[in-house]
Amino acid sequence: MLWAITSRDEFGFGYAAGREREALYRAALSRTAVWLRRSGAHPGRVRETARRHLDLLADRYPAQRERLTGLARALGVEAAEVAAAALTLASLPGTGCTNFAAVPPATGDGKVYVSWNFDLSPLFRLLMGRIPLYVRDVAGAKPYVCLGLPVLFGIGVMNSDGLSACVNSVGSMDGGEGLTFFELNNLAMETQSTVDGAVGVWRDNPREVLPGLAIAILMNANCIFADMGGDAAVIEYSHRYMAVEKAADHGGVLASANHYQFLDRELAGGADPRREKVIAGSFARLARMWELLEMFRGRIDRETARIITRDHGLNYSALAEFGMDRSPYEERVDDATICCHPWNFFRHLRRGEILDALVEMNIARTLNSIIMDPGRCTIYITPGNPCRHQYVPVWVGDALRMEWADRAREEIDYSPQWRPRTLTKRGGVFRRPRATKASDWARSLGLRFFGALDRLISAGLVEE
């Protein structure tokens, strides 16, 4: 079921990815060039930034430089062009995702769970497909499962030692050059087995952050890690500052959304919902997530995790400190529920608020819900909103060569060889992992369509 890329070296990994999905990569590079041109970016400065980043990678993360070079060779372009595309894709607007981690004693079955409601523009579905998971297996590094598109923006979610992760985009005004959060995440997944090891990757490397409150905030992210030892932590950071909070200090649970809760916002320049209206939903989602985790503390398992990820409840308590008192009977705050829907889209249209409607349609949508269960060597994923789709169990024990895979087989309630039915009708063209040249071509057309809306949506976020 999983798209697996196996290689003897990092260059070969990038080259193999590029050759297998050439049409899609070319569409991604073409789109990023359009975004850069529309934003008024100077081509010379873009190229110089990309070259500086390649030099930084050669010093701090040579494996990623080799991957970029391999992809560039497969596409017949310069490595700087691919690096510029990767940096641009990492800085696209986005404000979604509500995540949690639960470890003993908060779990009722003694397991470790990490949950990620992946909320982003439908544009990303065109790039990644409905079930956007793949396995990265390169000799000399830990194999791990990623979400995204190889090389350009793959986020590791579980490695062979059971280290599991999820991220939330977050805005910051404390910017600077370094490794992007995609690269920091990959470096941790390839080399670390524990939460403390992952924290060290963030602590010991320069961190790339593109300044911006509610726009271009994918370049920065809050990150949750959990390991098989029952340790979990959330990492919040900017270019110069960093805060780490452990689940052990919260009874075994952690929650994260799209703003800083532990890192001082005065230092990092985090978003204020009074000035950045689009971020208000993050405060509501985070408050609701903590409410549910407290409610289920001590008995969290796979079923309760699914109840949490499907939740449509409202909690505006975190907005009270900003003077934003809201009744649950009033119109919902945009992007305010854990299972995310564009609830107010048609209300905005009826009021003639076209730009607000487009912004909400772009940010208030759960593309996938993912529950990592490393003890059972399983990743559960939905191909859309978890309230409307069944979780698909994905067995990763063999692909990642997990040492406890034989024991885990006795605990799972599905067959490891089971595969979901792959749709072959026209409506299923965006379904992955069985991508074809036709589906990649269709996605490239979709990218052009969504690109036409990008300028309007970005302008709306800037105004907010």
Number of domains: 1
Strand percent estimate: 15-25%
Instruction: Enter the CATH topology name.
Output: Penicillin V Acylase, Chain A
- CATH superfamily caption: Penicillin V Acylase, Chain A
Calculate the terminal CA-CA distance, rounded to whole Å.
Answer: 42 Å
Poorly predicted tracts of residues: 422-433
Tell me how many strands there are: 14
CATH architecture: 4-Layer Sandwich
SSE series: EHHHHHEEHEEEEHHEEEEHHHHHEEEHH
What is the share of helical residues? 25-40%
Structural class category: alpha+beta
Q: Radius of gyration from the CA trace? A: 21 Å
Instruction: Kindly report the average pLDDT value.
Output: 87
The CATH C-level name is Alpha Beta
Shape: globular
The strand line-up of the biggest sheet is 11-2-3-12-13-14
Structural write-up:
- This protein is α+β, with helices and mostly antiparallel strands.
- It has a single domain (95-428), classed as Penicillin V Acylase, Chain A (4-Layer Sandwich).
- Helix content is 38%, strand content 16%.
- It is built from 15 helices and 14 strands.
- Strand 9 and strand 10 form a beta hairpin.
- Residues 422-433 have low confidence and may be disordered.
SSE map:
Elements: E1 3-7, H1 10-20, H2 22-38, H3 43-60, H4 62-75, H5 79-89, E2 98-102, E3 113-119, H6 123-128, E4 133-138, E5 144-147, E6 155-159, E7 164-169, H7 181-191, H8 195-203, E8 221-226, E9 232-237, E10 242-246, E11 253-256, H9 265-268, H10 280-296, H11 302-309, H12 345-350, H13 354-363, E12 366-373, E13 378-381, E14 392-395, H14 405-409, H15 437-463
Parallel strand pairs: 1-4
Antiparallel strand pairs: 2-3, 2-11, 3-12, 4-5, 5-6, 7-8, 8-9, 9-10, 12-13, 13-14
